[in-house]
Design a protein that fits this description.
Largest sheet: 4 strands, antiparallel
Strand order of the largest sheet: 8-7-10-11
CATH architecture of the largest domain: Sandwich
Radius of gyration: 26 Å
Structural class: mainly beta
Distance between the termini: 73 Å
Number of helices: 1
Shape: elongated
Length: about 170
């Protein structure tokens, strides 16, 4: 009888280890609901059905587990070199406005390149907040009505992305 129970326990242990390894390979999450809401003063992201999450931080690296990870950190933005065009956005970080300057260098006709330039201001979720043509070498973009967050200011010539600025609104 003792021999039969030890075989049974060994079989249960083997099956639990075997089945545990098989399920550890696939990561799944079933969430019952979730949403993102935003007003002029704050942003709220939530998910129901995620009872346990963990975040580990060693100073330079952050590891987060869980389905809903609303913080996004951009580490690099690829810039396209344009000869004869210099674009700057300041102050950054800002509270009230961003001054967008487009300077033409070594061009014969001063407003020739400004014909098809536009800017697009995006929030962290990729939602377009402002989209306007640039008609002067200096453009003021009002930021007072937006909540403190990180925004992306994309400069386009036609449909081609020329430069992206990461704007921090305080």
């Amino acid at each position: 009888m003792k021999n039969l129970s030890s075989v049974f326990y060994a079989l249960c242990l083997f099956l639990s280890i075997f089945l545990g390894i098989g399920t550890a390979e696939a990561q799944q999450a079933v969430s019952t609901a979730g949403n993102h809401s935003e007003t002029a003063t704050f942003q709220l992201s939530w998910t129901i059905g995620e009872p346990v999450i963990s975040t580990f931080n060693n100073g330079s690296n952050v590891l987060t587990q869980g389905i809903h990870q609303s913080k996004l950190t951009v580490t690099a933005i690829k810039e396209i070199e344009l000869s004869g065009l210099e674009i700057s956005a300041f102050p950054n970080p800002t509270n009230e406005f961003v001054n967008l300057q487009v300077q033409q260098l070594l061009t014969e006709q001063p407003n020739e390149m400004l014909k098809d330039i536009s800017f697009h201001l995006y929030d962290m979720n990729g939602k377009v907040l402002i989209q306007k043509q640039i008609v002067n070498t200096e453009t003021i973009i009002q930021m007072e009505g937006y909540s403190p967050s990180t925004y992306f200011l994309k400069i386009m010539i036609g449909k081609k992305l020329v430069k992206t600025f990461k704007i921090i609104k305080q």
